[in-house]
Amino acid sequence: MFFRKKVGIDLGTANTLVYVAGVGIVLNEPTVVAYSLETKQILAVGDDAKEMLGRTPGSIIASRPMKEGVIADYRTTAAMITYFLKKSLKGHVFWPEIMISIPGGASQVEKRAVVAACKQAGAADVYLIEEPLAAAIGAKIPISQASGHMIVNLGGGTAEIAVISLGQLVAYKTVRVAGTKFDEAIIHTLRKKHGLIIGERTAEQIKINIGNALIDQKPGMVERTYEVKGRDFQTGLPKILIIGEISINEALQKPLKSILEGIKEVLSLTPPELAADIVDKGIVLSGGTALLTNIDRYITYYTNVSSFVVEEPLYCVIRGVGMAIENLQSFKEAIR
């Protein structure tokens, strides 16, 4: 008897994770592709391509084919999925069954693009699962119960905010502001306030090292600092600057506010009985951007609802996709 491989994919704006049934998570690489403009040949994918971001000559482009959780460059995405499948299945790609996560409010066109990209990569069957549902399954939330759970999945391109009850999304919103927008805000602030031009990789490093969503400016507080290397806006020469977390905190306020508004909007759409459940259980935060220091305290402070980050938030969605593909029959209702 020939068994088809079952593969789960979390195709994120920043990172792509692959889960193979019976094996577990086998791949976690950046969603970056480098290709030659002249020959249209794909030169590198994943980790190798990320090394090239912002460092390529004119004839080579290193880019993220996913923008704000949606396929922006179709051909490149299909080639990237093919590459990740080959790498995960060690070259034995025989029409696998694929389950892939999509944003909660994805349009029919966006869904078709994802299915077509997977089919082109050699998939026999493609199942779509909404990201907030996958994140909730991965966070071990009992989604099939008749009680409200709120999950906020903070990814690279989108913040997926959803209230789930009886295995379905009751109220949801996709805010197209997340990790990459934080990086852009840091780039913008350093250029405007300090006359320093930096690339997105450096911005990401600053965010990881000294990014902070909520700072208690108490007397005696020791501010974290970080050495930033970039180019001076005026002279065009290389420049080194020591930056503190307070100015980075100010830079992050605008994108954080957009996410907060989304959470408030979803809470306002939630039926009162489910809202009562959420007050009891709190807001669950998952996704890579949930690793930003104090983001749970920030959301708690402004919503008056306790919120907490799940264990290993980066792997939350892929764990959920993996559990769903392993138990395909019981999750048939939740998937498209």
TrEMBL record:
GO terms for biological process: cell morphogenesis; regulation of cell shape. GO terms for cellular component: cytoplasm. It is found in: Cytoplasm. It holds the Pfam family MreB_Mbl. Signal peptide: none annotated. The keyword Nucleotide-binding applies. ATP binds at residues 13-15, 156-158, 204-207. Gene3D superfamilies: 3.30.420.40. Belongs to the FtsA/MreB family. Forms membrane-associated dynamic filaments that are essential for cell shape determination. Acts by regulating cell wall synthesis and cell elongation, and thus cell shape. A feedback loop between cell geometry and MreB localization may maintain elongated cell shape by targeting cell wall growth to regions of negative cell wall curvature. NCBIfam families: mreB (TIGR00904), PRK13927.1 (NF010539). Forms polymers. This is Cell shape-determining protein MreB. The gene is mreB.
